[in-house]
Amino acid sequence: MPLVALTGGIASGKSTIARRLAERGAVVVDADQLVREVQAPGTPVLAAIADAFGVRMLRPDGSLDRAALGTQVFGDPAAIARLNAIVHPAVRAESARRFAAAFAADPDAVVVYDVPLLVEARVDDPWQLIVVAHAPADVRAERLVALRGLSPADAAARIASQVPDDARLRIADVVIDTAGSLDETIRQADQLWDRLDEHVARRAARS
Predict the structure, then answer these.
(1) In the Enzyme Commission scheme, what number(s) does this protein have (predicted)?
(2) Cβ 122 vs Cβ 99: under 8 Å
(3) Residue 15 among known ligand-binding residues
(4) Are 16 and 178 in contact (CB under 8 A)?
């Protein structure tokens, strides 16, 4: 019943790997989706965000205005820390519940936690394997411009706001090089799946 953390910087191809592992049989828990769920209208987290950052963070229908919140906290370490202190405990609790439910349903399940902020928030959790999707910053910047419509300056700022690549690579048990073609990334994801037990055993032996 391995519990695998999958992380990577913005536009690193992490979601492509997660989708492929799901196709191969993994139970994928998406941290970004959990964040959206714990911030849904009527939740204590959303109420705390409104208290901390103002009701202008809410849309007329009562949902979170993510763009407004992002603008409010971007580039402000104190504001980001305040937001993380509200959101991260709720996400941690909900992810633990999802992991437990998956293993209760199938004790042999492979559970993959697709989590962008692993280094920042969850690196010390009891993962049995840490997988890092990696492409150089310039490649990821090109993807943000071409695929998401960001300006080069905005793309560079988004990348710079995250932890450096070497911080992620330092904690990796397995690195999937996503700088090449989609087929190459999927091939590496398949190799990871096929050799998962071996990778888990190797990490355990180092512990």
Answers:
(1) 2.7.1.24
(2) no
(3) yes
(4) yes
- The DSSP code for 118 is I
The answer to whether 31 and 95 are in contact (CB under 8 A) is: yes
Cα–Cα distance measured from residue 27 to residue 48, given in angstroms and rounded to the nearest whole number: 31
Q: Is 16 annotated as a binding residue?
A: yes
The residue type at 205: A
Is residue 61 exposed (0-12), middle (13-18) or buried (19+ Cβ within 10 Å)? Answer: exposed
Calculate the CA 129 to chain-centre distance.
15
Strands 174-177 and 129-134: parallel
Instruction: Name which of 135, 127, 101 is nearest 196 in CA terms.
Output: 127
pLDDT tens-place string over residues 160-203: 989 999 999 999 999 999 999 999 999 999 999 999 999 999 99
Q: Does the annotation place 12 within a ligand binding site? A: yes
Q: Is 120 left (phi over 0), alpha (psi -120 to 50) or beta?
A: alpha
Query: Position 20: which residue type?
Result: R
Instruction: Judge whether 62 is annotated as a binding position.
Output: no
Q: Which domains does the chain have, with CATH numbers?
A: 1-26+110-207 (3.40.50.300), 34-97 (no CATH)
Contact partners, residue 157, CB within 8 Å, separation at least 6: 75
For the record, the structure tokens of 128 come out as 């049995």
| Whole-angstrom distance, CA of residue 47 vs CA of residue 31 | 20
